[in-house]
Amino acid sequence: MGVDIADIVPAKQIKLEELKGRTIAIDAFNAIYQFLAIIRQPDGTPLRDSKGRTTSHLSGLMYRNANLLQMGIKPVYVFDGEPPKLKSETIAARSAVRREAEKEWKKALAAGDLEKARIKASQSSRLNKEMVDQSKELLSLLGIPCIQAPGEGEAQASNMTRKRDVWAAASQDFDSLLFGADRLVRNLTISGRRRGRGGGPAIPELVLLDSALEALEVTREQLVDMAMLVGTDFNEGVRGIGPKRALQMIKKHGDIETVCEKEGFDVENVQRVRDIFLEPLVSVDYSLERSEPDEDGTVAYLRDGFDFSEERVRKALRKMGEGRSLMRQKSLDQWF
Amino acid sequence: MFSAKAKSEVLREVVDVISTLVDEAKLNLNKDGLSVKAVDPAHVAMLDLSVGKDAFEEYSADDQEMGVDMDKFKEVLKLAKAGDIISMDYDEEKNRLIMSVGNITRRMALVDTAGMSDPKAPNLNLPVKVTVRAEELRQGIRASESVSDHVALICSPDGFEMTSEGDTDSVNLKLPKDLLESLDCKETVRSLFPLDYFSNMVKAASSAGSITMFLGTDYPVKMEFTISDEKGEVHYLLAPRIESE
Q1: Which of A20, A335, A336 is facing B42, going by the closest CB pair?
Q2: Which end of chain B is more exposed for a tag (fewer CB within 10 A), N or C?
Q3: How far is the alpha carbon of A229 from chain B, nearest alpha carbon, in Å?
Q4: What chain A residue is nearest to B39 in terms of C-alpha separation?
Q5: Nearest Cβ partner of A336 from B44, B122, B240?
């Protein structure tokens, strides 16, 4: 998902502690997909309640936010709105992948191949409207702000970093950089069991747009052009061109139009895709106000609605309480 | 080029002042001495330290930067008794700092300074200046630590106060004007601070007789004191907490 430029963008590993007191705009769909993919039983079955409904997303949101809030980090969840029209092909391709993965998951299960079953199951993760509504309901019980983006959630989160309303955007996708996020935090919402870059448990990393552009020696416009050559959620890219070659070509020729002209490539909808990244549809009408968690409401929602253990939910709520004092600490940044 | 000899207690003070905020630091060296500017990872506090060459037994250096892991420095210091002389020489070829204490030599790999910028201190308008004996502050902190994790620093034309409110108990240190070293205050100001940071900063002023604080309301506190027989100057800046509703 998103543009694949992980190998060429410099990222700095950070400790979660360094985010203490910071407000982070989390790409909600991205995070929830991760929970659905990761929080599963060994054979790949997602967590379910007694009515057979998936609860992996609620479990992830509850316990991961408990960790973040305990450390004094202030999450804000940004939900996708209407996807740009150009994304429809990507979306269709993704559902095809999911359907195929689901078939293979069942096959692997029947064959007793648990490892394959787990992998295929996680690729088959689906996020439906019900889950989105449940996620929003839980976040609002926890007093965590939810922001509805008119278009792409990442575009909205990135724009909020540019306005300095939040300190960073959090997503696994590098698209946030194309959308202009000053700071991008990766691996924020996933547990240590997923493999990060080069193996090992996922460690949070911070990517600074300015440092990335400086290291690659391109402008943000050129970074977008480069991404289009490789392929984004909104265009196919040129077959056989990876990030490194795309970068070379953009540096050599300046922009994608010239690259296409000189190299004989054909990239569709260049200006429309560019506009999606550089002039994204965003809302300026949102509230970042957080409130105290409704503890009894949260317990009732998760215990009565989805068979969560009251004890575990209460424990997570206590963790959130511990962070409340940390959140009152200001950083020196506002005086610089 | 860098070559110096210093008493272990002098280095210990320098290391304490730095490691209060960061695990790794960039030492800026020049012929007159060394300086360090650093911000802690959470951006809650800032340090501006300068140590003149007179603080050392011997000192010579060209303009250069040296990235140091403070834990390694502490390991070497643990080998020394008060009064021991520690010598330091920069090995340019291998980018290492060679430290010797007694018959032991430690060759210390330095850390990359590429990502370490020199933060610039913000220009703050802090209306109040108060100088307090360090011992009074230390005692106030000891009392506060048993009831809360934060402390309010309050100054009025009549004196200086430190107040900590816990869930059930509270602690108050009151120093009227005549018990202060100096006071320049026309209005009452009050800011709340994290006790752990404040405590570590005051502890780092172990040999300082007094600490000068610049204060405002809901503003950072700037602390100034000297170390190494007044040959080192420390400026700390600490961000406030939001007062609870």
Answers
A1: A20
A2: C
A3: 31
A4: A332
A5: B122
- Measured between beta carbons, the chain A residues lying within 8 angstroms of B243 are 328
| Predicted pLDDT of residue A143 | 94
DSSP B53: G
8-state DSSP, B11: H
Which residues of chain B does A185 touch, with a Cβ-Cβ cutoff of 8 Å?
none
Bridge partner list, B75: none
Other CB atoms closer than 10 Å to residue A252's CB: what's the count? 11
**Six-digit token string for B90:** 């920069």
A5 with A243: CB under 8 angstroms? yes
**What is the DSSP secondary-structure string of B105-154?**
EEEEEPPP-TT---PPPP-----EEEEEEHHHHHHHHHHHHTT-SEEEEE
CA distance B152 to A45: 53
> What distance separates the 2 farthest-apart alpha carbons in chain B?
60
B237–chain A Cβ distance below 8 A for any pair? yes
Q: Is A17 on the interface with B (CB under 8 A)?
A: yes
End-to-end CA distance of chain B: 55
Q: Is A329 on the interface with B (CB under 8 A)?
A: yes
| The model scores a pTM over 0.95 | no
3-class DSSP assignment, residue B31: coil
**Rounded distance between C-alpha atoms, residue A90 and residue A193, angstroms:** 28
In chain B, residues with a C-beta closer than 8 Å to the C-beta of A332 are 39, 43-46, 122, 220, 237, 239
Task: Report ipTM (2 d.p.).
Answer: 0.85
